[in-house]
Amino acid sequence: MKRLLIILFIAGFLASCGWGTPNQRPIKANPVCAEMRLESAFDFHKQAKDFYKSFYKTRKENELFFAWYSTEDSLYMANSIRRCYDKKNKHFNAVKNLYRKNNTLQRLIVQNMRQASQSNLSELYLEDYREIFVRDIQ
């Protein structure tokens, strides 16, 4: 009796998984994972440049903070490309280029802050920012 129940359970499990049905296609992940994330990373970098430009027009220091957070979001998205299965050499080179651009922009941002400690302050709030705005950096 126990053997019959075990065999029926296994048969039911295999039937529910779709094993042995050739008409179903296997579930595939998003085929353009790296492209989408790379595009998002470049969009964040463009936003950071726009905030940095608006700082020169308005001279409001909060624009520098927004630019800093946008560069951090850009770097986060660039780092997330390594989890994609469809990454290629062109993605590696683009990410390397994006790192250079963001590091240069971050250095410019820090130079324009009134005090050097304010860049440390923005890094301090970065973890809080990620906890509050989780959806912004995905």
In a nutshell, what does this entry contain?
By secondary structure, the chain is mostly helical.
Explain what you see.
This protein is mainly α and 138 residues long. It has one domain. Helix content is 74%, strand content 0%. Helix 2 (33-58) runs antiparallel to helix 3, helix 2 runs parallel beside helix 4 (89-112) and helix 3 runs antiparallel to helix 4. The protein is elongated, with a radius of gyration of 24 Å.
Topology (elements, then pairings):
Elements: H1 2-17, H2 33-58, H3 61-80, H4 89-112, H5 117-132
Give the distance, in angstroms, between the N- and C-terminal Cα atoms: 52 Å
- Unreliable spans are none
- What is the succession of H and E elements? HHHHH
According to DSSP, the number of beta strands is 0
Structural class: mainly alpha
Tell me the number of helical segments per DSSP (H or I, 4 or more residues long).
Answer: 5
Beta-strand fraction estimate: under 5%
List keywords for this structure.
mainly alpha, elongated
